[in-house]
Amino acid sequence: MAEKKLTLPRMGETMNEGTIVAWLKQPGEHFRRGETLLEVESDKTNVEIPAVEDGQMLLHLALAGEKVAVDHAIAVVQTFDLSSPLSQSAESRPALHASVAPEPKMQSNEYRSAPVAEAKIRASPAARRTAREQRISLPEIKGTGPRGRVTATDIRRHANLSAKPASSTVAESSGQGLRWGRPQSGTCVLLHGFAGDPTTWRRTGEFLAEQGFEAIAFELPGHGLPPVPGPSLEELVAEVTSRLPNPPNGKYHLIGHSLGGAVAILVAARDPGRVASLTLLAPIGIGTYINQSFLDGIVSAGTIEALERELRKTTGRPLSYAKSALADILESRRPDALKAISQMMALDGVQQFFLVPELEKITAPVRVFFGRQDKILHWQDALSLPGKIALHLFDTGHMPHWEDPSDVLPVLGRFPVSG
Amino acid sequence: MIETTYREALGLALRHAMMEDQTIVIIGEEVGAYGGAYGVTKGLLQEFGKERVLDSPISEAGFVGAAVGAAMSGLRPVVELMYVDFAGIAMDQIANQAAKIRYMFGGQMGVSMVLRTQGGTGRSAAAQHSQSLEGWFLQVPGLRVVLPGTVSDAYHLLRGSLRQPDPVVFIEHKALYVQKGKLDPTRADADWGGAVVRRPGEHVTVVTYSRMLTYALTAAENAARHGVEAEVIDLRTLNPLDWETVSTSVTKTGRAIVVTEACLTGGPAAEISARIQEECFDFLEEPIVRIAGEDVPIPVAPALEVNSVPTVDLITEVITKLVR
Question: A127: which chain B residues are within 8 Å (Cβ-Cβ)?
Fold first, then answer.
């Protein structure tokens, strides 16, 4: 690991200075090689400056709007690539220019819609064609071919997992939510995360339906069009509790993601008799850290580009999103309600509720799933949970069930039995 | 259906063609009294007489040129070049004359001639008598290039070549003359110009021709013991090239290996794999692999000679590793 200073690169023969337009990586935020760190304006063009190695942003030395001379230090970063010949200590200032961005790509004011990461994925031509046909984004797939190459078989396996072979797996709209499958093996209740919606459970719902479960995904209050004032955590819990199903055997498996995880903990703690198991995916409420810049960014995102930028923080590898899907999200969100929920959840990057004591009261089996590349929460917080809680770690970001369904869902679908 | 050899099948094809077509004549070194350097034309001088089977002096440029002239005058000569390695001496007659006549004379006449020759390794014939030079002819538009790999094809591809309106370079393999096989003179494995799937398989396509066909088939059987099923395609003719058969197979398997005895650099394997890439790109799971002769003069020492061209073991290994 090395701390080093980023300097403003020269982006043209005549360039002597540039203006910082925006920092896309905030202090504390991790970045991968190729991700955009900041946007700089020089003469007539705006240029995105990419990271040349993996690292973490420590400090901005120049703020947005500031004019900076070429080769002047603009930030302090920490990089993790020891072997890189470009690694320089913060002291050796003169050569730092080379470690920032040797050849920044010139482009117009618009952000590119396709993420840089897409081009770097190893995938066979057949896999790329199959992915195009199935409308699957390649970064979602884990490659099993040589050197991690994604093969057409990987795509088909992935597609089959999320396919809809029987009509029973098709989601039905049920009030403010979605429903999949029939309750042959049991019923699952799915609670989405902050700024999410029931459709983030699509693959999970379809998978559970194939396994013989009924899966019901609620829409949390404050998310979606019906104007609901920003609810408190208690109000979220009360709303979910009032809508809980009454399955034939009386019990249901409760699954919550992120904010939905916090809600699920409280619901389970108050309804102990009926919860068959509790599964928490990257839950809030078991640690203190939360990525404030993500919360602020997602609340205030008013454009497709800004929204996409924030959504990329939710996954381990940046995914690409369809413009139309992003536009739909923008249209259906309630910024005021989201802002209120965000303030209820976190203040200055600190989570505002700690639910481990409630978690300890729950007698049903509890499982926690985390991605080790989570950029929203610290997965390490789960390490200090009581020993009776099973911890499953995946090579994903904040959305394990959504990013890597082929790895995560088979584990998710094997519900623990109590006692 | 008869059981015969590659050598005898070639002789039989010449005999049957000469009985059927009075314009067919044979010219070359030792083709008459001696019966051909590899014995293919044995007995033809006695059967058809010295008007139709002509022993020539040792002058490749001279007798190939004579054959081109004979073809332009209405005969259908079969000219035998003892080694394909000697083509250089006659190359002006082949590439500048035979291949260009139809074009240069506005289609008024063609050169319906078959240049029979043989190439490849296998007899310690050393660097000047062991090359696989089909790539030279492949570079000349106007020439047909035929490389039989089975006894049946030795007969049927030669009969088919003797019906073509344009010059055909017919390259036999010196190690195949003694190969035994079945021949039904009334039925070919496919039309002249078409490729044949010699072994069906679902995991990988092996595209080859001439002696490497035998190697590839043996390698495919070895690989099958490891659970890998290779589809082996015998191209039979490099010009024309049957792309439909190749692309249908590669589209199915997603993997292609091209095997040639001809050396790697700038060789037929490069051309074939480039075409597969162009035609089947969206269906490929792996890079196309070329297994070809080493870029070296063929050594005379048998152990070195064997390893200067692809071996069955090498092909087996590549097939199994490519599929895993």
Answer: 285
